[in-house]
Design goal:
This protein has one domain: Porin (Beta Barrel). Helix content is 11%, strand content 68%. It is built from 2 helices and 8 strands. It has an 8-stranded antiparallel β-barrel. β2 and β3 form a beta hairpin.
Length: 184
């Protein structure tokens, strides 16, 4: 399926078209903070969908332009979004936090990136709450309007499966989001 190849094709295209020193010129190195809005769906590990809804998140991080056109960094995001289980309304999933590493290629004011990291979330089954953790990955593109402002479009997938009180519970989320950041 062509959609499975799009991230790889975007990275190859970014590498071929990138101009020297663009990561430095557009200031992709340094700190940033921002927020995003998106649409999230979540399902049980069995694959049965159990909920979806709008999501919001705050993020902050730091990038380092290590060589021309290559950026590495780290990012922390916090999402206070709570999604209700459509099959069992008393159950909710949310308050997700991620800590991830990012790597990307730049083409002047465009950054194509991928991310991989740790995720934690809270699950309430109606009888009590439980915290779980797991992994996440994401890919996206970010566009800098000015040296201090950017917008990004991102697709992410998270799997939370290490709950303390409910060890057999496992959830996966898929999110598409649009975000903005201030760089310093």
């Amino acid at each position: 399926m062509i959609f499975n190849r799009l991230p790889a094709m975007a990275l190859v295209l970014a590498t071929l078209l990138a101009s020297p020193a663009s990561a430095q010129f557009f200031g992709w190195g340094g700190g940033y903070v921002g927020g995003s809005v998106g649409s999230t769906s979540f399902e049980e590990a069995s694959g049965s969908p159990v909920g979806e809804g709008a999501s919001i998140a705050l993020h902050g991080g730091f990038n380092v332009a290590v060589i021309p056109n290559v950026v590495f960094g780290g990012e922390l995001s916090l999402s206070p979004t709570v999604l209700e289980d459509s099959t069992t309304p008393s159950e909710t999933f949310g308050y997700m936090t991620t800590l991830r590493a990012r790597a990307g290629f730049t083409m002047d004011n465009i950054l194509i990136y991928g991310a991989l990291g740790y995720a934690a979330a809270v699950y309430d089954n109606g009888l009590g709450t439980d915290a779980g953790n797991g992994t996440m990955y994401a890919y996206g593109a970010e566009y800098k309007f000015t040296p201090l402002t950017s917008v990004r479009l991102e697709v992410s997938h998270t799997k939370i499966d290490d709950f303390v009180a409910l060890p057999t519970t496992s959830f996966e989320t898929d999110t598409i989001s649009l975000g903005a950041s201030l760089h310093f």
